[in-house]
Write a structure and sequence with these properties.
Keywords: Membrane, Transmembrane, Transmembrane helix. The chain is mainly alpha-helical. It has one domain. Helices cover about 90% and strands about 0% of the residues. Helix 1 packs antiparallel against helix 2. The chain is rod-shaped, with a radius of gyration of 24 Å.
Length: about 80
């Protein structure tokens, strides 16, 4: 998930810089350098956001599964054995 977020953020940043340069008529060399810097910066931000999102999903899933297992264990303990 972290790599996916990093790729999406990086590509979005590069596209925004390139479109802004086209709109303003900026030069090629400066635009490419700015686009690459933005790509790297937003890839790092996307990686961090993706790792946080993955940890959140993992923890939520773990808690939900544990709650279901605990409920199942309570049902098994409340039934008398024959």
């Amino acid at each position: 998930m972290a790599r996916t977020y990093a790729c999406i953020f990086a590509l979005l940043g590069m596209i925004v810089v390139l479109l802004r340069a086209i709109k303003n008529g900026a030069g090629f060399d400066g635009t490419i350098m700015q686009a690459m810097a933005t790509t790297v910066l937003l890839a790092v931000v996307g990686m961090i956001v993706g790792m946080i999102a993955q940890a959140t999903v993992d923890e939520s899933t773990r808690n939900q599964l544990q709650a279901e297992l605990d409920a199942l264990a309570e049902v098994d303990q409340s039934q008398p054995t024959s």
